Protein 1
Amino acid sequence: MTAPRQDPLRDPRFFADPYPTYDRLREGCPVQRIPTGSGGHQAYLVTGHPEAREAFTDPRLSKDTARFFASRPSNRDLHPAISRNMLASDPPAHTRQRRVATPLFTTRRVRELRPYITRVVDDLMTAWRPGTEVDLVADLAVPLPVTVVCELLGVPESDRDMLAGWSHDLFDATDNGRIDAASHRIGDYLTQLVDTARATPGDGPLHSLLRDCDKGGLDRDESISLAALLLVAGHETTTQFIGNAVLALLRHPEALDRLRRDPDLIPGALDELLRYDSPVSVATFRHSTEDLSLGGVDIPAGFPVLIAPRAANRDPAAFPDPHRLDLDRDAGGHLSFGHGIHRCPGAPLSRAEAEIALRTLLTRFPDIRPAVPPESLTWRRTRLTRGLTTLPLAL
């Protein structure tokens, strides 16, 4: 096995189409050491499906980011609400925070939210007319999940576009200064929002969340970090999910026509759409706390380990003919929401938003088609997620 000499995830061609790179890496070895960034740092990248599942559940792969960087110099300046949230912790701290977050996204709670989600989608499409053009990303995929999660957090409508912009900057893979600045804007805003809610009695959604935080034993900083995680993780991946799913269907007219003729098939198609082009490129940070072996590769203690769900979802060992979109495939084993104790608790809400958005789109505008040539589409340059900058549609 020959390890790459440059970070393969920063090649401009990778952002346009990551799958040839993932295939090449996986064929060489499903777990291999790669350079990350331009500072001489290295990490282990996991591209195989069985290896990714194993890595997601191995307790020797810690998510405690603060522990990893405690003895390592860093020029980063992330707000603590962003850098020390539930995704950057191990049990028992993770367990306490997840116990508070999970009830927000139970099947019953999401069922109760469906009428609200439907109203939001309806409102967003009110001005859409057959024969005109819209940008699916800016006009639906971004505002839908932002509106829903901001409603859950009690964020005023006047502030929601601003928070969406900061969240967008937080995922900028090309500018650490921009990322750090966005983290402080989000962290400072939510600190003020939480402190104001604590000082003002009420029965709003944020007050309810904070009461749950108190019952769960979360302190002030943990409550703020949980709010930040819900805000950012609660909409970024859903935005990419919706955009990627619509693009995949546009590129596979037979699948699009099938769902258009029978929208009741959409819930069952979501897993395959998630598998085919996952909104998550690389799972959040993990590091080895001791020497271990993964996929037959020895990983020394103290190394970052990057799990790539998008690559694992196209592993032919798990999904035959993986580069084909097949709505009849059993794709329930995809890893787009992770696996194990860190599996995304918001998955039911994300699925509901995507289902309602797709159903409404295909029902109201059955003749949608791309409004620009495929080669003109551009992708956001982010390491963690994969999504389009715009998706112009002709209605």
Protein 2
Amino acid sequence: MSGFLAGLCVAVLPLLAAGFWLGRRTARPENLGGLGTPVEHATFETLHTASLAAPPLRAGLTGETARKSARRLRTLLGTDALCLTDQDIVLAWDGLGEHHRTEIMERLGSPLETGRGEAFRLKCDEPDCSLRWAVVAPLTVDDRVHGALVACAPRESAVLVRAAGEVARWVSVQLELADLDQSRTRLIEAEIKALRAQISPHFIFNSLAVIASFVRTDPERARELLLEFADFTRYSFRRHGDFTTLADELHAIDHYLALVRARFGDRLSVTLQIAPEVLPVALPFLCLQPLVENAVKHGLEGKTDKSHISITAQDAGAEALVVIEDNGTGMDPDRLRRILAGEVSPSGGIGLSNVDDRLRQVYGDEYGLVIETAVGAGMKITARLPKYQPGVHSAGPLPRE
């Protein structure tokens, strides 16, 4: 990631340089309304234009995103025409001379194959067309050429060749960010699937066994538990976004605990203290339930006396603080570290490493789980959830079928 950020800085610096150069070339003594010198004003304008071009590109290189960004990119270069292509077609054209589309695509074979920029003379018989030169700058992500930025102008210009190359590098950085976003989404989806596979077999078997035990002795109780089971599994196996709300996650935990209490009876007690103001907080889907399941397992495993689990969710300013604590068997801290590092199989530590990884991916390394434990001393798990994080939004209530 540090190398990537360094690349990002390298890609932004040419934009600043372009703004400085534009300011020097267009410097005039008139008052700019307190915006600074002409050089500073041009730099600010360059950065502003770049910021407007970036959001569409963060969705990848498509016809729609190319159309939304092409005009901003042409403004950055100050050229008469600009187009963005993929490997096969012109995705968007902004400015004069759109009749050059076919000619340009015919000349892109070498740049798209080698990843090297190129400039060439345009052939044109139309008397009103002022375009005579095209500068091609490939768009690359991870050494793969995705397409090209092509700037067209009335005359050959070494400055345009350099500027087009630098802007293409900046566009490539935005496409790399889009690729990283997509990779993160695929990774989160894969981890959610893995978590479902990890939780479902033993939980479904045990729940159905408990429900079956009440069918003859207490049919009404069996019916209630069957509804709890249906609601919980429906939530756990939903296909409705990567994020949920704290309220929905706690509601699913309530269904889960109803089934657990039916199985263990008085051996398990649970207390909840939830601040109402944190209920709308968005968080990764199936983020807390595995922690509660872990507490249940460690709270009851190898114990004959009663076990207790407490779940609290507090308002902590810009964050929601969720604490899940049990008085169970606990765990050797060294083994816990190896589980979270993925060095040993998490038998008895259901979902801990999965949840820790997802929290770090979504919020950053400083938001990993904080776990306090020792053998025979129970376990306390603390999760900090920012109330606002770019890109973290609940998909809304689960649609009813």
Protein 3
Amino acid sequence: MKVLLIEDDRALAEALGEALGEAGLLVEVAGTGGEGDYLLRTERYDAVVLDLGLPDGDGTRWLAQWREDAIDLPVLVLTARERWSDKAAGFSAGADDYVTKPFETAEVLFRLHALVRRSHGHAHPVLSSGALAYDTHTGSVTLAGRPVSLTAQESRLLAYLMHATPRVVSRSELAEHVYDRDHEPDSNVIDVQVSRLRRKLGGERIETRRGQGYRLVAPEGEAT
């Protein structure tokens, strides 16, 4: 999952970004609404964490503009404002969820995972494809009930494919959502990592669509 954190408190942004990164998320930070606006319009993310008290305009103003421009990815508002009127303004501008400061990092993580799952049409926290299961809360992967050990990058790659299933995901989409924008890989790197996943999960589980990309499938007849 690739998240844009728009927060002008540098210490808070670094601490939260590091904590979310340790949980397996890719986090890119913007210190102003304008910087966040530019990144949203030039890069692809799975969710946004948005502070309201930004130095170049209230976060609700930026959010309302994104919704007006059909930028519809999930937005979690993170702010010190606790009044109901502030929460109402955030939701009215287009927020999907709202967390007040001080907060528990685990709560932010759980809420982000829930927002992204639902944006892909998944209600349950455990995503499955046949006997393969991915727990979005813990990041653990099991195959027929047995744990599968994955690297952080393999886990992000598999998580995105599972969120997207049964849709075919192009290499460029994987590069945009699974890798840092400063270290986006060429297609060969993605092919290599998909091959490693196949060795761990079974070669028939990730289908290659020539000229289109990859799709996660459950082997025919496999019990869940």
Protein 4
Amino acid sequence: MLIDQLEFANPYWWWILPLPMVIYWFIPAYRTRQSAIKVPFFDVVAKALDETPSDGASQLTPSVWQKAILILSWGLLVLALTKPTILGEPQTREQLGRDVMVVVDLSGSMAERDFVSSTRTDNGERQSISRLDAAKEVLSDFVKTRKGDRLGLILFGDAAFVQTPFTADQKVWLELLNQTDVAMAGQSTHLGDAIGLAIKVFEQSGDDETAVKLDNTIDIKPREKVAIVLTDGNDTGSYVEPIDAAKVAAAKGVRIHMIAMGDPKTVGEQALDMEVINRVAKLSGGNAFEAMNRDELSLAYDEIGKLEPQLYESTTYRPKQSIHYYPVMLIVIMYLLAFSLVTVKRYFKAGEADV
């Protein structure tokens, strides 16, 4: 309803609404002096004209329509002073304060079925799943806690590629994550190249600042850049060494959290180089985690969530449109019409008198 959308910016002006009545009751009316002719037979003339003698001044008495215009004009003037405002539909302004790039290893070792699912079978037992499937389950829960963050997804193996550019649409991000499969980027682990690509995507995103306009003020804050790298093997032939990539990330303001998935005692290409993983995290200002099972993997993402709390802010407001000029327009129109009608009436009366 319109009445629910109406508010008055200066409601205290309503107090002057009865002011004309106060003036009418307590202040004498203005009287105009008129000239008179003195005659010795005044009483005879008064009786002949059937007039009652009064004081030597006269008071102008407005007609009914003049009183109506005066009252209506005063009410409209007070209404304009209160500045009536129409409220628009509620709108929500959101501030997105962090970019999070999730980097997932798709090398052949991610097919190892040494993790268990969070769901249980009919027998009450947990089913063995691959490392990649476990990562998908945990990431699905992790994403739900990142309201307001823009998420990206990079997959790597023999090469690294962007699966999802930065987006605030969590549903789309999860769908693209679930479409991934082991070895779709190759069998090896080019960890350094994946970190380098993440830095490049941050640079190309072009959103280094977040501008929020509230109450006619603009608050500009640098957008935080965070990369979460999940890997289960050591680097195997990247063009850019992971340590060098971490140094560049630190210079560019990109914080990297490393999650080592699997048994660090494994040997061969699947071995985890924890020294490199720890150095990459430390150089970039992040943290390193080890996850030998699904619970530890989930705990690692929980810890990252605590280290990178949400910067999301939501403000609901209603746009306002002042309509105080409409009462003023009505007053002007009324007086123009009244003046025009009186002028026309006098014109016709003058014409009849000439005849």
